């Protein structure tokens, strides 16, 4: 959902946060990709033991948006469909860098 909504949004966004996400319809992104968000920073993370959305879906989504010219900060964690402290720390650092760059 985040990839599709964020990349199709007509106005520039500060960043996209994708936790255990995937691209349900690559064709949608192809036909709605907004030039305003082609260079939007993306933080994406996925659990390697995710039984709800297997990591292969997350990796395919990452590869799909990278192929469209987007920059993705990707990490995989030893967790199920969840969040972990290490992921939250990485997200905090990513947000800090993003906010510092926009100041």
Question: Care to describe what's here?
Answer:
The chain has 103 residues and is an alpha/beta fold. It has a single domain, classed as Alpha/Beta hydrolase fold, catalytic domain (Rossmann fold, 3-Layer(aba) Sandwich). The chain is built from 4 helices and 3 strands. The chain has a 3-stranded parallel sheet with strand order 1-2-3, sandwiched between helices. The mean pLDDT is 94.
Secondary-structure blueprint of this entry?
Elements lengths: L1 H7 L7 E4 L6 H7 L9 E6 L7 H13 L4 E6 L7 H18 L1
Parallel strand pairs: 1-2, 2-3
CATH architectural type: 3-Layer(aba) Sandwich
Radius of gyration: 13 Å
Q: How would a textbook summarize the main sheet? A: 3 strands, parallel
Overall geometry comes to flat
Keywords:
Rossmann fold; single chain; 103 residues; 44% helix; alpha/beta
